[in-house]
User: Fold these one by one.
Assistant:
Number 1:
Amino acid sequence: MSSHQRVRGRYRDTEKTTSSSDSDSDIPLPSLSTKRRTGKYWTDRHATGLGNLLALSFVLWLFAKGTGFEFPFPKPSTPPSVTPKFIEEGIRQCEIINRSIPHFEPSSNKRKENDRYVKGTKPTLLKNGTLWTGEKDGHEVLYGVDILIENGLIRKIGKSKDILLSLKERKDAVEEVELNGSWVTPGIVDLHSHMGVDAAPETFGSEDTNSVKQSVMPFLRSLDGFNTHDLAFNLSISGGITTMLVLPGSADSIGGQAFPFKPRWTAENTPQSMLVEPAWKIDNGTWARTHSWRHIKHACGENPKRVYSQTRMDNAYDFRQAYTHGKELKDKQDRWCTSPKTQTEPFPTSLDWEVLSDVIRGNVKVNIHCYETTDLNSLVRISNEFQFPIAAFHHAHETYLVPELLKQAWGPPPAVAIFSTNARYKREAYRGTQFAPKILSEEGLSVIMKSDHPVLDSRYLIAEASWANHFGLNTTIALNSVTTSPAKAMGLDHRIGYLREGYDADIVIWDSFPLVLGATPKQTYIDGIKQILHPISHEKPVHAQKIPPTGKWDKEAREAVEFRGDQDLRPKKSAKNVIFQDVGEFHLSTNTFAEYDVQTFEEGKGVVIVQAGEITCVGKCSTEQTESGFEIINLKGGAITPGVITVGSKLGLVEIDQEKSTWDGVAPDPLNDGSELTNGLLIHGVDGAQFDGKNELLAYRAGVTTGVAYPKSSSWINGISFSFSPGALHPLSEGAIQSSYGALHITLDNSKTSVSTKIAILRKLLTQDQPEDAKTELTEAFDMIKDGKLVLVVKTDKADTIASLIRLKKEHASKSKITILGGLESWLVAEELAENDIGVIVAPVRSYPGDWNTKRILPSVPLSNHTLPSYLVSRGITVGLGIKEEWQAPNTMYEAAWVYANSPSGIFTKSEALDLVGKNLEKLLGLNTNKGSQTKAWVAHQGDPFSFGGKIRGVKGVGQVEIDLF
């Protein structure tokens, strides 16, 4: 249509001549037919009409200008431009993806309140504390300082006088807490937890750690499986945990997204209300993206290999394929955002791959379960191929062997989140060393101690830092490894991990310096809210308030690297004649020196002389005549104690728990597999004994002189235990097998056969006399049990099951000697156990409600007055301490020290605490070791055996003449 065909907003007939009589205007317009017939006619008429039009327009303009009149005709206009909604939404997405990576300035007093602040929370003034701030400028420790908590924040750090002046009229509204010099630290931060998704007690209905539908699932979120009813929340808070990164499990190459939580229950009582700075949140009814960090979990190596029957090549391909999808999506999004208003399709996204595109953009903290050098190398290459940073390698048992490799990762070097002594449970962890934190730190890498809760109860995460410090990690770095360093790796160090003004009021008050063995919180604050309603605390000695020295293990650390984690752990030197100088305590009673049951000496004065492998003098001994031909060892105020006994694990029968080729094997279960051959058969553990393994040798070097093992069985009747020397080379070595026939072990909990069925069979075995021709080795063993000649060790935790055993003994086998192994609910029937002379080997020592049979635990300080061992002892029960996994055996002595430190005053002397892992176990297990002074096992400690920092310098095994020196 020609321009002259549209006049005053309406269309005209192209074949009709317009005139003044039939038009809204007096302006004549030619028809197209006239124009086409004669150009002259068109030109003359057009010129005349144009002049008339201009004149008329001028007159009308003057008229309108003078009168303000507006013509009633619509004004020509351009229709408004409407942007499609999908483009508007896409532009918003472009703004999000084009933001710089998350970066936050450290919080300051400009911050008015914590976003998690609970209105009505009373301000608190913590007075006269000794602060560990987390700083590295020489001011990490502040003495005699006060902290004002207000609006969920640390409002002021200083002196009470100045703080109270600043409060003015609000002074009366402040709760004041006198700390009397107690140590105060930032809240403990756990970078690797499964709390809430692997909830306690574990049941089928609450197990949400892993999905095993496919190996790559970046779209899964731990938030969606987070159980707010987990019994671990209060327990972990009582250990000082204030923030944890809750990760999906490690079954998958990419298991899903992780989320940071604070374990404080909220009024809303939902998982989302426990989040810290979530990347997405409900904002005024809208699901909105924030500018906070996201988190994701990857895993490599044996876990995906085991679950999906993959090779490591498959595992690496998983990552490369997934990140190729992520990069393709990123590139599509970037292209879309170069010209959003010209797009005809919505902003490209993918539920499967969007988080990986965000990883490549640098907005996601990548946490990788990765142990072994080959896997670490693969992930470092992949991080460079797709150009994304790695926040931390977790578990990472071989990182200490390849620190330079970690520095080759794309972006800043990853942190290393590791255990202290938990190793050797799988092939990937077999070269792990307790010196890894020291080695990595000295290589300039950030070291983080983590729990992998509930693999380790995160309540005791501080103990991981303590062990690391004991084995050579600098004190400041050790304490920062559970506070500032994980906060930084989590991207939250702008608000947690330090004691700074303006930071979240996540604070722990301790009963001793946090890295001292047995250190326990007196109180934990999260978001400025006191978490332990009625805390119980035992006063710790003055020396426990001091910062302990870092352990000196330079030589051992060098050897670990030199031999690539496979150094020779056997004793390098032995001697029959030794003089121990500067002995502080002597805890032995020997045939020769029975009067020296417990002897303490002034500093530098105690001497112990060993001649031909036998102790010949204790105390003030003359060494003038004996120094020639003697090894002389200064114990620096240390002690000589009985040898330690370990029981409860498969030490001596299993070398690597997850490698069946290293086991003795599993005995069959005649109740469930229908095997006639094994009916009445009694398995002897000694027939499968294994020696010279790492766990045994490390235990021996830690003072464990006797191991007790019973057969690994799928049956409830396990078999006969044996005792052995962890330092022996093979079963026929001198003194290797200490007792081949120990106790009969059975298991009542957690198997296919009901507890009531097992009790019924026990009743039959204990009450019915078998004809001579029908007797089996099993029935003969129960005849011995009935007469009290053989100990029956029953593995069970549940109080109700223990009650059935008590009733069985009382009614049918009053002479029998029964010992409970496990016993986490045994405190509920303590009086009945004492009345029927049934002892308990508590294993593990630190109670945790891991399943339905253990949910009624005695939690220990600060939640209860007693530890479980101290409560049972206070009720007259013979108590020993046990373990559950082989790697725990070297720590046995320190578990006794932990019980001693955290039990009420007067329950244990030091010698009685040592009996928990010594002579009490001999009685409870029916052992016949340590007969006479020549066969008695003992250990020489350099430094206090009841605290970290010391070393074992000499071990005399059962029946040995020579003392092995370390």
Note: The chain has a mean pLDDT of 90.
Number 2:
Amino acid sequence: MALDRDDAGEDQRWYARDLTCDGGADDGAGGGTVHLPGSLQEQGYGDEVTAETAWNGQVVDRSYYLDDRYAPYREPGKVAVPFWLQPRRYYRGAAWYQRTVQVPAAWAGRRVVLELERVHWESTLWVDERRVGSERSLCAPHRYDLGVLAPGEHRVTLRVDNRTVVDVGPNAHSTTDHTQGSWNGVVGRVALRARPDVVVRRVRVVPRVADRALTVRLDLAGGPSGVGAGRVVLTARRCDDLPGPRGPEPEPLVVDYAFDAGMSPRGLSATTAHLDVDLPLGDGAALWDEHSPALYALEVALEPEGRPEDRTVRRTVVGLREVSVVGTQIAVNGRPTFVRGTLECCVFPLTGYPPTDVASWARIVAVCRAHGLNLLRFHSWCPPEAAFRAADEAGMLLQVEGPVWANQGASLGEGGSLDAFVHEETRAVLDEFGDHPSFVVMAHGNEPSGRDAEFLGDWVTTWRRRDPRRLYTSGAGWPAIVENDLDNVSEPRLHRWDEGLGSRLNATPPTTDADYSAWVEGAARPVVSHEVGQWCAHPSFAERAKYTGLMQPRNLDVFADFLEQGGMGDQAEDFLHASGRLQLLCYKEEVEAALRTPGFGGFHLLGLSDFPGQGTALVGVLDAFWEGKGYCEPEEFARFCGVTTPLARLPRRVLAAGDDLVFEPQVAHFGAGPLRARTTWRVLTTDGGGGGEALGGDVVAEGVVPGEEVPVGNARRHDVVRVPLEAVGRAVAASGTGVRLRLELAVVDLDGGAEHRNDWDVWVFPAPAARRSDEGAAAGVVVTRAPDEAVRRADAGERVVLVPPAASLRDDVALGFTPVFWNTAWTKGQAPHTLGLVHDAQHPLFARFPSTGHTDWQWWEVLHGARAMQLEGLPRALRPVVQPIDTWFSARRLGLVVEMGVGDGALLVCSADVLDAPADRPAAAAFRDALLAYAAGPDFAPGVAVSATEAGRWLADVSVDVPE
């Protein structure tokens, strides 16, 4: 291997010399021995990363290059970039690979073909000193016909250039440093093969479900004398291990062919031919779908007449499957299917490139299925053959995309080289992977710009006509055009770009009765929501030990340092768990809102796993290795994201004592057929989640939903259930303590016995009439909104609760209910800036306000309109009673409830304005009473004291002047 930094190799005829001798020193920079398949970077070649490294990817937040805070991470030898995973070595340019091969005598007179399964990016090939050609596909293997090679020794020289050959967009996951990285090399199959003159060049299998048959379309290629005559033998055999009757295997089908080797108008011999063959599979042939992925191994044997030694065999695996549109939903074999998808963005930290073995992909697919998902969307890239095979076997649906994100400089439909490349790569993808039954949706790529609607309307029409075996959409994200079979659009979803604190979960009280019916009513075709979620959790610093390969988590190292510098390094695990549980709550409502919508097409999560680029987007309940982070098990996720998902439409999740619990049962069922099932509900007590009364999981009420048939779909809604909670209300009113209840729905299959369960927490707090007055609840406590008064009276020895008006506090930290959306670096500081709350659930404050140590739905009323206080200026030993978790880019020490000794007294400061909580905010009023009761009780004894001067200075720092 030799690195061609100056692009001198072709001019200097490197293909004509022995690079294995003069390729340069094995010093990690110039050249040496490299093993293929593999990349040169993972084998130690390339350059050291510096602050001047010219990356392939957009950096939105340029503060790394400018801010003093990042100065230590720009020093030579200590470079750590915060915006994506960092390779150990980096190289973009041409590299030359060479080896000597021995052509056996048995190959005499035969053409030799070289196959390179996965090349990044453009390859050029020489045999000895003859230039064979060049290939540039990012999706399909590079194949070279080397012609007839004489037996004996030959030198094969390959030049690979991993720079931008066509501008597919700097952030396209097919090439960008945001995800897989700019690797150089060849992975997967690297093989030389001899082939006879006549071969099957392409097999395209068209399933015909109604006829239980396959139409096998064969393209034959011959030598100089043409295709000639012979026969084709087609054999199909079931090759899955699914239970149940299999029926008789179809008989082999023999088709004779004879093509005249006459002359074409140009006087050249015809060298190609085409055959269409109908292959019956039998009336009992099994269909392929996500519930029963029956597969057939198809063997096509080509036997040229009179040349038995030239017999060749092409093999493929197919499924009897048709995908279509029925109204506003996608249908597989005529049955409605709800897309429950997530993204795969080509994130493989150990190697920097995707695996090409089935086992690796089968693991990823199994993880997705365990979480209840049924589709993988490959964002702006196409996976290797192994991914399709793993999906076929598991019944996983795939949305495959061309290697394009024509944005951030790139554009479509403007006559550039990208337009032709899109069609070129589409053809390659469909020819190479089109037989796979899992391949159900094709998009050109992601989120385009330019004259995209015009260009992609033609693209959809062209390729659907040429290959109608799947559905087509113009692009992921947009445009929604009439030519589409389905739309991937950025709405509806719970949080849209730049929506900030105006999004539904931040702006409106928590319910579970919202859906997207208005979108469906106005839809002309299925809508599959684009990249929903994007809810972040705090970095998992323990994850860093997993990065033992090429890509290094230097971004996480930076964030860990920031946390230490903020005096919170020992809280990292608490931050991860608390933010992760809030993230899970948001994903649950995100998924259920979609499942509640009759006629809806589905969603693509962003995502089930973390995205380590674009500033570092920790949006998954799984890490970049598709492994759990410790706060969510697959079974918990699948409860709200499965084939059969019980749903409850709750108009309120926070009740006052005396209110009834009201809900409407619904079941989203997209199984193989209707269920005969019993649907039940029950309301259970919980332990309160903190210092509240341990109620032990007793059943408060239970019932049965009428009817035993659960049809396929989600349109059926059952009668409203009203559950009186008199006993709970009396207990709450008498004790002044809120309780947490759990509503659980279960669907039990009466034939198969399977159970499908889902649950929702509901809180009951004292009603306004049962509340004590502020004075009674806080006997001996001074309650004030004035910081000066609070400090003065605490210094004088009094117990003081300070609740400043929200408008009087700084708002440079946007505190909402939800966690950070995507990440604050890539969104340029979009709100919210925090990742939820962390607190000790056993703290005496929560004796009256049940909580579990993290943000849950009862906190919405408290947080709505609240501000986060920065604790700079207070001793680091002072830990807030309730602590908002800051974005990892800032790692500021924040407080929502803070206590401290001042002089001879004690001060409790709350930046959630709950003093005048109205009657329709029982949780906020309960939190106020909990604060006052705690301040009046014996447990209010702050462990950290500050002087009146320090307290006053800090309060002045977190306050702003309010106009009169």
Note: The chain has a mean pLDDT of 94.
Number 3:
Amino acid sequence: MRWYQFSAEETAKKTGSDPQKGLATKEVTQRLKRDGRNEWKEEKSASQLALFLGQFKDFMVLVLLAATVISGILGEYIDSIAILLIVFLNALIGFFQERNAEKSLSKLKELNAPMARVLRDGQWSRVSSAELVMGDIVSLTAGDRVPADLRLIAVTSLETEESALTGESLPVAKMTEPLNKEQLGPQDQVNIAFMSSLVTRGNGTGIVIGTGSNTAVGQIAELLIDTKRKQTPLEKRLEKLGKVLIVIALLLTALTVLAGVYRGNPLYDMLLAGVSLAVAVIPEGLPAIVTVALSLGVQRMIKQKAIVRRLSAVETLGSATVICSDKTGTLTENQMTVKEIFLSGNSYTVTGSGYDPSGGFYRGGKESNDKALIRFLRYGVLASHAKMIRKKKRWLIDGDPTEGALVVAGKKAGLDADKLTDYEFVHEVPFDSKRKRMTVLIRTPEGKLVAITKGAPDVLIDKAVYEEVGTDKKPLAAKDKKVLYEAVDQMAAKALRTIAVCIREFPAGYEPKEEELEQNMTFIGLNGLIDPPRQEAKDAIIDCRKAGIKTVMITGDHVKTAAAIAKMLHILPAGGKVVEGKDLDRMSDEELRTEVDSMYVFARVTPEHKLRIVQALQHVGHIVAMTGDGVNDAPAIKASDIGISMGITGTDVAKEASGLVLMDDNFATIKAAIKEGRTIYSNIRKFVRYLLASNVGEILVMLFAMILALPMPLVPIQILWVNLVTDGLPAIALGMDKAEDEVMKQKPRHPNEGVFARGLGTKIVTRGILIGSVTIIAFMLMYQGDPDNLIYAQTTAFTTLVMAQLIHVFDCRSEKSVFARNPLGNIWLIGAVLISMILLLAVIYITPLQPIFHTTDLLLRDWLLIMGLSAVPTVLFGFMKK
């Protein structure tokens, strides 16, 4: 049996506690020694040094370190220093990004109540919550944070807010009776007060049944420890790219050495030449440029109201195939709102959303504020204790969200609770989960006493004797009750939570007994409430579907509510499955993986369920984005490919587990992030294409020369100049390119897609071959077998290579053709090309630089030849494929 199945007496016996005296101090000491403090263990964090050194485990970084060693052997110390600086800079950025990434458990600990009121040795006292033990008797009152898991043994109108733990959007009314059911989730264990939940109403007493890691929230801490972050798609692709470059470098080195030795060149010279080519293969600036591109994306995302905690998170979101979204506060406003009123046989539509009091009441399409409606709204306000608060241009509710919705509805009709002071509060019968209702006794300005009862419609309709119709009342017959039940059903079908209102009037001077307040009642009407869906979320979900991204709702709410909201938001298609947590419990992991693609809504789920859902989707090949705001979302957020938390309503635990924080809690911001992520990856492909095509061109120039038994067309310092200047600035500018028009009309990339997919490898090779060919042609035309022309020919080849690359960079802006986009559309690229050209002219025409870079002056006719040859690769392929 489970704790919720035991009676209060059985719980006290099993825990060895006395509800009248509590535990003895000596017993507390022994239990503390046996069970430990009321804290959960933290994941052992890596030292600062280990975290920094861990940045050098990346395969691409290891490739660059190898390049550093090779450059040093060749005497290219400037190159070595440049590579080391790049590697060190990337390591620092990664270190500072990750240093704050694993604070989830320490933030979880902050949810612990610092003090608790405990009964020990027959005396009530306040002790540190960390010192609570199994069997302690703990007192709770409104405003307290529950210090441990408690089996409640006495309650008075006790309600706790558990949304951070269970996902429930409403406070839960608590009771003490045992629950004779198996496999109840936390949200249904109404006789348990869970650690970290907040007491919003009433008071109660409970016996500690779980401390530390044995609490519900402690189990989440255990999940966080066991859950490991997945390698992001970008990290996987760059790792594959590094491996490809290593293979190419080794093959080219071997090919060059063999070709040179075959031609009769000394082995030592050919080894140096081969290693020089191998170094040229590796784009030293690639990691730095990737970091710059991601950082620029981060800055753009801040303007879109999203904070990126890990650089790779934005690109990962661009790869997403599924978004698993929490309902409450993410897809909905997390603000209960009266949307419909049923009164005297008429339905009223209520406009406005959330706690903002703007809106009105419409009947039959026309605005209505008739007397019966105003009276009904006044009853709702008088029977509620919630208050509206204006804070930073935002309306908030202090009190129960349901009562807050009734107060907001009243304010829409001009009924301000603070101005109803001529109505005197006399008595209250508090809400009880068994009675499903509450009653307040009010004295009107005329001196009459009115008992206002609000609660569950099924209870109040049965108890009511009369029904108010207009300003009159009539007996409530069976057929009339049927009409009311039909109205309740119609509201429920719209995902509306129904609250009924009844009254009983007493003559002036009569003092009724408490039991009379809920007798001979007159039924007044029904309120239909909902936590409304965000309109922008609905639009964003539709746009995501067009982009090939599936949205899945995962919530702790009831299945009917979840399904109805999902339909409103266009999440649930015809034939889409709605699954409850208890259904997941019956499914094996293999069964879940088989069915998960047909599931769109998961209701009444636990943190373990959320984690299973994310992992099942990942197992079948999806890139999963998980959104959420509560403690219960944190494990799934951390396990997902990209975790997204809410900045306003989100707990610190959820934020620390995530890679992206939405400052406006708006699902629509996710769509903007997806667009940004896709743009960043597209830009990464652009500069990878540019860098590698340029490097292929450099390699082939050298290789062609060896095969044709020509002198070296490029000297090492020229190759270094090209790699650091011509390659670097334009590549960074490509990383700042704007999104192409069709970026959100494309399907998500396949999770296993490599960097060279969709023809990128072919583009790199073909453009590289042409760049290398025109460069070697320029060299041969100027050299003509005369050693005296060598520097002149090398200068021409060097200039042709640079110009071919600077023209080719415009071809890289589109996957289609150089003519597909406005060449002036990226002002940063224009600037980068101009700077590169100025630097090129400097090393050619500034006399002191000529000996260093092995250059000489070029004439106008030389430039005409160079520009003609340089334009061939880009223009030729521009016409071949549009």
Note: Residues 3-42+107-226 form a domain with the Calcium-transporting ATPase, cytoplasmic transduction domain A fold (CATH 2.70.150.10).
